Amino acid sequence: MKKIFKITLFVLVFLPLKSFSNTYSSDTLTVFEQLEKSILEDLRFLKPDIRIENELLYDEDELNSNAFYETLLESANSYLGTPYRSGGKTPKGFDCSGFTSFIFSRFGIKLNESSRSQILNGRKIEKKDIQKGDLIFFKGRNSKAKSIGHVGIVSDTTTSDISFIHSAVKGGVIVSKMSEPYYAARYVAAVRVEPLIFRN
User: pLDDT by residue (tens digit) across 77-121?
Assistant: First the structure.
C-alpha cells in the first residue's frame, strides 16, 4: 500500500513539477530526485521491465554493464527445453530469431524480426571481443551460402570456447558451442545490442 501511494504521488505531483525544474532551488530538486529514485526502485521490484516516461528502469551504468546481460541470460536460460516452432515467437515454441526477439523484448528492447535483419540491431564485435549477451550469427544449413540463417545469444565466454543459447530445429532452446563443427563452419559475425540506443 505504501508503494502504491508513493507511485501515485510520483505520477500526480513529481512528474509535473519536474517539467518546471528550472523554477526550483537545488535543495528542492534534490528532494524530488530522492523521491524519484525511491519510487523507481519500488517499480523495479514490482516489474523489472516496466517503463517510466518510456525509459527502462536501469540507469546508464547498469544498462552497459555485465549485470544487465547476466539478467537477460537468466531469462533466456529459463526457456531451455522450449520446443522449436517455425515462425514461433512465444514460449509455446520459438524459431531462432523469435527466441532472441522475445528475450530482448522482455527488457524493452525491440529487435528486427529475422535473423538476417537482427544483425542491424547492434554494433559489430570482433570475435576476440565477444561477451555474454552479444548476438551471434551463423549461416543456415548451407554452409556455402552468403546469407545469415541463424542467430543466438552468447551465454558464456569464460573459456576459449564460446557458448550460446538459441532455438535449434533439433532440440528447441538449447546451449551449443561455437567449436561444434556445424557452427564452426557457419559462423558469420557477432553484434552487441546496447540498450540505451533502443529506447523508444
Answer: 999 999 999 999 999 999 999 999 999 999 989 999 999 999 999
132, 139, 150, 186: the catalytic one is 150
Side chain identity at residue 7, one-letter code: I
Each residue of 161-193: pLDDT tens digit? 999 999 999 999 999 999 999 999 999 999 999
Can you give the length of the chain in residues?
Answer: 200
56, 68 contact by CB (below 8 A): no
| Catalytic annotation, pick one of 39, 73, 76, 96 | 96
Burial class (CB in 10 A: 0-12, 13-18, 19+), 183: buried
Provide the 10 A C-beta neighbour count for residue 90: 11
Backbone angles phi, psi at 58, to 5 degrees: -135, 135
Q: Count CA within 13 A, CB hemisphere, residue 55.
A: 9
**Catalytic entry in 93, 121, 137, 166:** 166
Per residue in 108-158, pLDDT (tens digit) is: 899 999 999 999 999 999 999 999 999 999 999 988 888 999 999 999 998
- This model's pTM is above 0.85: no
* Whether 150 is catalytic: yes
